Every structure is written in C-alpha cells, then in structure tokens.
C-alpha cells in the first residue's frame, strides 16, 4: 500500500486490507470499476447518494494505494477515465467471497429486493 491513513503498524492482513477498502463507498467503487472503465460522472450515476466531494476523495485514496488508475486524455473538453490496476483487480477477486456471504445473509434474513440488486457485487 502506498499510503497509510492511520498511525501504527498493521495487526494482520485483514487490518491492512481494511485500511485500503475502509470507507462507505470504496467497495462499491471497486465493484463499479470491475464492470468497466468509467468516467467520474458515470461512476456518480452508478452510485446514487455519493457526493462529488466524497467520490473524488475516495478515488484519490484508491489511486494513491495503487488500486485505481486515473487516465487523463489531452482532449477538449478534458476526459478522465478510471480503471482498476492489476492490484485493484486482485482486490476485487478477494472481495467475491465477501459478496457471496452478504447475499446469503440477505436471503437468510428475509430481506427482499436487495439480493437481486447486489448479485453482481
């Protein structure tokens, strides 16, 4: 990880991973970028409820950690695209079992409508 946002050494691998994916929107940003390369506005539409400020900050943190790549094209108007780095792809793969656990948890507790919406996560 390129940047640590909290002081002290990590206690375990899960602690290190949580430092990277901690934050309300980061896992959903990873899911969205796992679908395809996206521009900022597209990510914002894919993540209803996220503010521009929070999305920009979390993308910046993921970029610093080597999870997200930000490509700026020399065009008018300017175009910026976000994609997963190989490290980001491997992190998304590691999150698959967590998503499966979440789906089982939703189904076991009788929640409706959310399991289908999050089936790709």
The N- to C-terminal Cα distance equals: 23 Å
Helix/strand order: HHEHHEEHH
> Mind telling me the C-alpha Rg?
16 Å
Mean pLDDT: 87
Helix content: 40-55%
CATH superfamily: Winged helix-like DNA-binding domain superfamily/Winged helix DNA-binding domain
Low-confidence sequence ranges: 114-121
Summed up, the helix count is 6
DSSP strand content: 5-15%
**Major beta sheet, strand line-up:** 1-3-2
Major sheet description: 3 strands, antiparallel
Q: Under the CATH scheme, which architecture would be assigned?
A: Orthogonal Bundle
List how many beta strands DSSP finds: 3
What is the fold-level CATH name, i.e. the topology?
Answer: Arc Repressor Mutant, subunit A
Helix and strand content put the structural class at mainly alpha
Q: In brief, what are we looking at here?
A:
The protein has six helices and three strands.
Task: Give a verbal description of the structure.
The chain is mostly helical. The chain has one domain: Winged helix-like DNA-binding domain superfamily/Winged helix DNA-binding domain (Arc Repressor Mutant, subunit A), CATH 1.10.10. It has six helices and three strands. The chain has helices at 13-21, 26-35, 40-46, 52-64, 86-108, 114-117; strands at 38-39, 68-73, 79-84. The chain has a three-stranded antiparallel beta sheet with strand order 1-3-2. A hairpin with a 5-residue loop joins strand 2 and strand 3. Helix 2 crosses helix 5 (86-108). The longest helix has 23 residues, at 86-108. The protein is globular, with a radius of gyration of 16 Å. The two termini are 23 Å apart. 13% of the residues are buried. The model is unreliable at 114-121 (pLDDT under 50). Keywords: DNA-binding, Transcription, Transcription regulation. This is DNA-binding transcriptional regulator, HxlR family. InterPro entries: HTH_HxlR (IPR002577), WH-like_DNA-bd_sf (IPR036388), WH_DNA-bd_sf (IPR036390). One of its GO terms (molecular function) is DNA binding. Residues 12-110 form the HTH hxlR-type domain.
């Amino acid at each position: 990880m390129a940047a640590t946002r909290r002081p002290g050494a990590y206690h375990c691998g899960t602690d290190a991973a949580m430092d990277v994916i901690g934050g309300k929107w980061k896992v959903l940003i990873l899911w969205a970028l796992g679908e395809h390369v996206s521009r900022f506005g597209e990510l914002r539409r894919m993540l209803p409820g996220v503010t521009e400020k929070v999305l920009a900050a979390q993308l910046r943190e993921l970029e610093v950690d080597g999870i997200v790549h930000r490509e700026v094209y020399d065009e008018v108007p300017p175009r910026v695209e976000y994609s997963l780095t190989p490290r980001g792809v491997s992190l998304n793969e590691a999150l698959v079992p967590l998503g499966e656990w979440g789906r089982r948890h939703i189904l076991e507790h009788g929640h409706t409508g959310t399991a289908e919406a999050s089936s790709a996560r």
